[in-house]
Amino acid sequence: MKLRHVRAIAVFGIALVALTGARGSGGASCSGSSGGSSHSSSSGSDSSSSSSSSSSGSVSGVGGSSRDRAARDIKIDECALSADGKNLVAKLTITNSDSSAYLYDVTMQFKGDAGKPAGLAVAQVDDLRVEGGASKSTEATTPYTGTGNGSEYTKCEVAFANRTAA
């Protein structure tokens, strides 16, 4: 329980740094017309949902820390507003190229372009187990609380990634 509280504080801190314009996080973004608005966080799952628009990208980290390795293992397949318009969805594929199983924690942040107001929107995947040498698809979702069609969000990116031995 205490670890989740610490993780929540860390996620808030990362989101705050991202919103204040800090650069050089080592993560990459997924650009295109994605959907969504507002804030909140949710958990990932292994299920899929249909989306109204999509974009793709990949994440690359540098260095050798657990966070950098975790970031390199994540591929952003799609960032979109769900077909029902209720959720922002980041579809991810996590590929573990090591021989040991890991638990992955990923925080995605949905963002708008400069000049387009977009509220804080954060989605999480917690403790996703990926066996050594395997890939697993998942989704990070968060409720869309905007009143439009989600066009204020144009990309999503990995705000935080970590992996621990399973």
Structural commentary:
The protein has helices at 2-19, 66-72, and strands at residues 29-31, 44-45, 57-58, 74-81, 87-95, 102-111, 121-130, 135-143, 155-165. Mean pLDDT is 72; it is low at 1-63. Strands 2-8-5-4-3 form a 5-stranded antiparallel β-sheet. The protein has a 4-stranded antiparallel β-sheet with strand order 1-9-6-7. The chain is elongated, with a radius of gyration of 15 Å. A hairpin with a 5-residue loop joins strand 4 (74-81) and strand 5 (87-95). With 166 residues, the protein is an alpha+beta fold.
How are the SSEs ordered, and which strands pair?
Elements lengths: L1 H18 L9 E3 L12 E2 L11 E2 L7 H7 L1 E8 L5 E9 L6 E10 L9 E10 L4 E9 L11 E11 L1
Antiparallel strand pairs: 1-9, 2-8, 3-4, 4-5, 5-8, 6-7, 6-9
Assembly context of the chains: single chain
Percent of residues in helices comes to: 10-25%
Order of helices and strands: HEEEHEEEEEE
Trace the largest sheet across and list its strands.
2-8-5-4-3
Secondary structure: number of strands: 9
Quick synopsis:
By secondary structure, this protein is of the alpha+beta class.
Descriptive terms for the model:
single chain, 166 residues, alpha+beta, 5-stranded antiparallel sheet, 4-stranded antiparallel sheet, 2 helices, elongated, disordered N terminus
